[in-house]
Amino acid sequence: xxxxxxxxxxxxxxxxxxxxxxxxxxxxxxxxxxxxxxxxxxxxxxxxxxxxxxxxxxxxxxxxxxxxxxxxxxxxxxxxxxxxxxxxxxxxxxxxxxxxxxxxxxxxxxxxxxxxxxxxxxxxxxxxxxxxxxxxxxxxxxxxxxxxxxxxxxxxxxxxxxxxxxxxxxxxxxxxxxxxxxxxxxxxxxxxxxxxxxxxxxxxxxxxxxxxxxxxxxxxxxxxxxxxxxxxxxxxxxxxxxxxxxxxxxxxxxxxxxxxxxxxxxxxxxxxxxxxxxxxxxxxxxxxxxxxxxxxxxxxxxxxxxxxxxxxxxxxxxxxxxxxxxxxxxxxxxxxxxxxxxxxx
Length: 345
Ligand code: SF4
Fold this sequence. Notes:
Number of helices: 12
CATH topology of the largest domain: TIM Barrel
Largest sheet: 10 strands, mixed
Number of strands: 12
Shape: globular
Bound molecules: iron/sulfur cluster
Strand order of the largest sheet: 1-2-3-4-7-8-9-10-11-12
Structural class: alpha/beta
CATH class of the largest domain: Alpha Beta
Strand content: 15-25%
Distance between the termini: 32 Å
Radius of gyration: 21 Å
């Protein structure tokens, strides 16, 4: 019973643990070695830390636990090399991650929540509803598994899987700090992108922080009324407020914002729609990802993006000086593409 109440030591940053060490009458720096065992060597118990004094390990074990690694099921796309991993955590909560390969590089798309409360009508995760936030250790477990699947190296990480990362910002931020810690995974913050549907206060918070991660904003579409049909979050934060926060982020960090626009056939893919998007972002330091909508059960009225129309939109944006990437669909045969993650449902 007592074991259940102890926090997982991997949910804490090195600085937090150093503070805890001092409170235990130890030197804060003693945690460096432990951090290394936990995050670099994947130690799954305090006993698996050779060379660390038993008395110190017992002290740690009295205060913290190391939860078992989640069960992982793997599916591999027959179309491309995309890998989808389904994690089942000890309490039964589930989340998915995706490993995407691009010529010589590999990236991981991680989940921040089990399910999602945002309820976007085009998204399989949204249809599941919200189960719970993922803890830093659960986000890190996804990273470690994805890295293994990628052959030991990942070139980038995106928080674009299940959940809205800015509604679990405290835990996502901690996972970023642990990932980038040179005694932890030592993964550069500049290679981490967090994607939000537009949680304005957290965009501003990120802009004011010292984190070096990149921001992606899922505009979905550039028309306010249409956006309200596609995501309930539009009622909370307007496009005007979201663009204002993105501008603030760009001004503060001097980093480009990645705007994600989902192309639905016949809905938001005309030249006039491209102009509407242009009007919204043209004086911002940003670039655009046009993402072809992937069919999800429960959203029959929405049609998959039309490639020719998307290319025409791309041309308009590029000619106006906006870097625009047309994102290829990946892992659609294993429901690993954008908006398709449904935790095995
Ligand atoms: S698109 Fe993102 S924010 Fe919207 S329901 Fe899906 S996971 Fe949540």
